[in-house]
Amino acid sequence: MNQAEAPVHDSADSRIDAAVEERVPAVSRRMLLRRAGVGVGSTAAAFWGGWGGVRGARATPPDVSADVDPGSLLSKLVRRITMGTSPAEMALANQFGYSGYLEYHLNYTAIDDSALQARLAPLTTLTMPYPQLILLPNGQVISELIEAVILRAVYSSRQLFERMVEFWTDHFNIDINKEADNYLKTIDDRDVIRQFALGTFPQLLDASAHSPAMLYYLDNTTSVAGNPNENYARELMELHTLGVDGGYTQTDVQEVARCFTGWTWFGRNGQPNAGTFRYNSSVHDNGQKIVLGHVIAAGGGMQDALTVLNILTNHPSCAAFIAKKLCRHLLADNVTQSVIDSVAAAYTQSGGDIKTMIRAALAPNVLHDAAPKYKRPFHHFMSAMRGLPTSIANTSGIRSLLLATGHMPFYWGSPDGYPDALDYWFGLILPRWNFGASLMNGTTGSISGVTVDSTAFFSGLTTADQMIDKINQSMFAGELTATERSRLRQYLLVNVASTTRRRETIGLAIGAPTFQWH
Amino acid sequence: MSDHESIECLGCTEYRELSRRNFMAVTGGVTMAALSAPSWLPRVAVAKDHRGTQRDVMVAIYLRGASDGLTLCVPWGENAYYTNRPTLNIPRPDSADPNRATDLDGFFGLPPAMSPLLPAYQAGKLLIVHACGSTDTSRSHFDAQRLMEVGVAGVTYTSGWLGRHLYSVAPMDPNAILRAVGISTGLQRSLQGGPSTLPIPDLDNFGLSGSSTTNAERRGALNDMYAVVPDPVHAAAENTLATIDLLNTINFAGYVPAGSAAYPAGGFGLALKSTAALIKAQVGVEAVAIDVSGWDTHINQGPISGGMATLMSTLAAGVGAFYTDMTTGTAPTFVLVAMSEFGRRLAENGSLGTDHGHGNALFVMGNCIAGGQVMRQWPGLSPGQLYQGRDLQVTIDYRDILAEIIQQRLGNTNLDYVFPGYTPTDRAAVAC
Question: pTM for the whole thing?
Answer without folding.
Answer: 0.85
